[in-house]
Every structure is written in C-alpha cells, then in structure tokens.
Design goal:
Length: 138
Amino acid sequence: MIRVLMVDDRRLVRQGLQALMRRTADLECIGEAVDGREAVELANRLKPDVILMDYDMPKMDGLQATAQICARQPEARVLIVASAYDRDLVRQALQNGAKGYVAKPDMYTELGPAIRAVYAGEPYYSAMIKSLLDESTP
C-alpha cells in the first residue's frame, strides 16, 4: 500500500483526488493539508510514501513547502500536481526536490502511474509537462 499525503487548498480537488485513489487498491490517503505550512508539519509527522503537492496555496506555496520537506527528509517523494506550469516553474520544482510534475488536466489519466513511478524512485512527468520540457531542449 502506498501511503499518500494530499496537499491542495481546494476541497473539491482533494475530494477528486480521494475518489481517484479509492478506485485503486494500492493507494491510501493518510492525510490532507490545505497549505504549505500544514504540508511541512504533516509530512514530518506522518512520513508519507508520496506527497501530492499543489503549487498555488496560501501561507506557503508548494515550491517552498517542497524545499522545506526535502531539506528535512531527503528521502521524501514529492509529486507536484498543479494547474500552473511553465518551464521555469517545473525546473524550480525539480531543483527544490520534487520527483515529478503532473499538470492538473492530465491528473485523471496519469495520477496512478505517476504516484507509482515516484514511489519506485523514478521521475515522472505528465504528457503536458513532457511536451513543455521537450520544447525547451534544443
């Protein structure tokens, strides 16, 4: 069972992620955070296998939270799941320690494979993110 911490300030998004995970036998939501500060606290306390992290949140954004979590727990596996994505944002997320990035429009089809890949220690980029990164490579 892969233990997942969900971090998103929108309740509807968290409910949607919960519904997606309930359809899969190997994923379990062990906690929810509504902002970056709460994410840092819960990640430290719960030690999830994978953290699904939104970018745009109050109090502390997902990139700052990712940096703090990964500084305290180098083994942490953070998967950014965000509607905001451009090359610089994706690069910053990876520099801060994220192991993958899923654009929210891709999450319904790619969330399970993304969580499993990141859990296995493999980087994961959804189709929209791969396309974006490919555009920036000469």
